[in-house]
# Entry
Amino acid sequence: MEYNLSGKKVLLTGASGGLGLEIAKALLGQNACVALQYYQNKGPLLPLHKTYPKPLSNLYKCDLASTDNCEKLINSVTADLGTINVLINNAGIYKGAPLKNNTNWLDVWEETININLRSAAYLAKMVFNHFVEQDGGTIINISSRAAFRGDTINYLAYSASKSGLIGLTKTIAREGGRNNIHCFSIAPGWIYTKMATEIMDREQLEQIKYEQAIHEWIRPKDIVPMVSLLCTGSMKYATGSNFDINGGSFMQ
# Structure
């Protein structure tokens, strides 16, 4: 479904690959002005930036593991776009660490929490204050099925970080409603992306597909309609809600 997002100024993190890139394409195609954050590789964003040049699309290289960088990102985007109406916390990493390796486990824990949760919280904190001043805005946090079902023990940090986004979402929604600030989370199952094919072999990929009620791979394009709908601002009475998009592999 197509929506008209003309006039919306959106900050999208993790825009250069997988789900983020598909969200970027959709929002720009629906007339939004989108600030596209990437970590290192802007290559996938360049064709999009050529099709939708400034001020429609703006590229921002930023290491979200640093709160100083997060603050600079918000300041740069608001300076360039004039405002932010929607924040989409999509950036994230998926790294495993055996429990028996204390040093490696702690490194992976800290990196995962910093990028998946702390950066999302810090960006949300900054835009929340901005939204109060401008009488409203929307925050969308991309969580995971793992927040509710859990993950394998080596991916404890990932599951914990995505669970944290659920609490973040609900708390912002409770406080933000009186200021016309609405917050949502989306919890996808496994999405068929380059990352998925790098982590799992063909047999594992097929097994995951048939764990779902719908025996087809979830693609990035299957998540995009919900993101677009939430960007419209028409779902305010669902604030604080999580939307499961996992092909029926986990139902609440």
Q: What stands out?
A: The beta strands are 9-12, 33-38, 57-61, 86-89, 137-142, 181-188, 242-245.
